[in-house]
Design goal:
With 379 residues, this protein is of the alpha+beta class. Among the domains are: 42-61 and 225-322, Beta-Lactamase (2-Layer Sandwich); 76-221, PAS domain (Beta-Lactamase). It is 50% helix and 18% strand. The protein has helices at residues 12-75, 78-89, 96-109, 116-124, 126-137, 169-175, 223-229, 264-273, 276-281, 319-322, 324-365, 369-372; strands spanning 141-147, 153-156, 183-184, 188-190, 195-205, 212-221, 239-243, 249-251, 283-288, 291-299, 312-318. A hairpin with a 4-residue loop joins strand 4 and strand 5 (195-205). The two termini are 58 Å apart.
Length: 379
């Protein structure tokens, strides 16, 4: 049959040329798409890390603002307000120097057995029972003290460290010379409860007049907040850091809170975080000692109201791990480019050898010079 004799003959030259014409354009397109996909994936991962950072920072803001609101509620309790007012009335008619002398004397004996009677009366008072009731309702409040305008405790859940707290930094900030302002102190550690805490202070105002009468101070446990950032990884090599405005790590993987270790991530992106474009983007890529990382960030927004809480959340992930889903595609595209280059080289070699062979065949087919010489009569 005719079909039995059907043959397709294609020269190696055409095969190589066809392969090159197909592979080279596809390789170029593949490299472009891979590069585009890599950039798109970086942006996608960056936005994801930014979202995680915003969630974490929002959680911190919500928790601390919620605790401040709870302390304000306690400070507005009628029995607490009345105890503060009664404490202030006790100074009526007394000379300031006499009051100062009494406070100095009591501060000197407060740590000794002489204060036992005063401490017992303080802790057994009705306002102190009210504070303990709030403490039982909200265990994150480790202890609480309410003072009058001279810093003397009128209610407390436990014995205060000193008789008058008027010279404590946070008390002075909250009292603010009689103006009254909310404040949150620096992170401290409580040996008794083995927990990290911050002191939250709110003003106590007189009912009706809303004039400043005293100060309510509460030590609030923030260990659960900090524990979130002390994990080695959030998954997929992602790490979370809580850093201060100077770049020191407040809490992070295997980092001592009080060591004041500077964050490498913060050092790499700190300048960009301060720009409008950087804040709007919310993430950056940075070259760290362990390689290139994608870092998402979000400000807690607490610094405006509480200067000691100038915290920023950083969520960092190794770019190599983040781009793992498309790494094989990139390698395949590179393989195609190498193959295309090999094909081009092979085609070039083929053309060179084929051309030399053709020249040799032509020379062999041409008659020799002796054949072209005219013959004589004797020949």
């Amino acid at each position: 049959m005719a079909l039995d004799k059907f043959e397709v003959r294609v020269s190696i030259q055409k095969i190589l040329l066809g392969l090159v014409l197909v592979i080279v354009p596809l390789s170029i397109v593949g490299l472009y798409l891979t590069n585009h996909s890599d950039n798109a994936l970086d942006a996608s991962m960056g936005n994801h890390l930014k979202t995680v950072a915003q969630l974490y920072s929002g959680e911190i803001s919500h928790l601390l603002n919620d605790r401040v609101a709870a302390i304000k509620l306690i400070a507005a309790d009628p029995s607490v307000v009345e105890a503060v007012a009664a404490g202030n009335r006790a100074y009526k008619g007394q000379d300031e120097s006499a009051v100062a002398g009494k406070l100095e004397k009591m501060n000197g004996t407060w740590s000794g057995p002489e204060s036992a009677t005063a401490v017992k009366a303080l802790l057994a008072s009705k306002p102190s029972e009210t504070l303990r009731h709030y403490h039982e309702m909200e265990p994150s409040i480790l202890r609480m003290t309410v003072t009058d305008e001279h810093g003397v405790a009128v209610a407390a859940t436990a014995k205060p460290g000193r008789y008058s707290m008027a010279h404590d930094g946070i008390w002075e900030t909250v009292y603010s010379g009689g103006k009254g302002d909310v404040d949150i102190g620096n992170i401290l550690y409580d040996d008794a409860t083995k927990s990290y805490y911050v002191d939250i202070g709110v003003p106590v105002t007189e009912s009706g007049t809303q004039q400043l009468a005293g100060v309510a101070l509460a030590s609030v446990n923030i260990t659960p907040i900090l524990a979130t950032y002390q994990q080695d990884s959030l998954g997929g090599g992602t790490k979370a850091f809580l850093v201060n405005k100077d770049g020191t790590v407040v809490s992070g993987p295997r980092t001592d809170i009080f060591a004041r270790v500077r964050s490498e991530e913060f050092g790499a992106i700190g300048d960009s975080m301060g720009t409008l474009e950087g804040r709007q983007t919310g993430y950056m890529t940075a070259d760290l000692s362990t390689g290139r990382h994608i870092v998402g960030f979000a400000d807690t927004g607490l610094q405006k109201q509480y200067p000691n809480i100038a915290w920023t959340v950083l969520i960092s992930q190794d770019e190599h791990e983040a781009t793992a889903p498309i790494r094989l595609i990139g390698q395949f595209a590179i393989l195609m480019v190498v193959l295309a280059i090999f094909m081009l080289t092979l085609l070039f070699v083929y053309y060179a050898l084929h051309r030399q062979q053709r020249f040799a065949d032509i020379e062999e087919a041409l008659p020799s010079h002796s054949d072209l010489r005219p013959r004589t009569a004797h020949e």
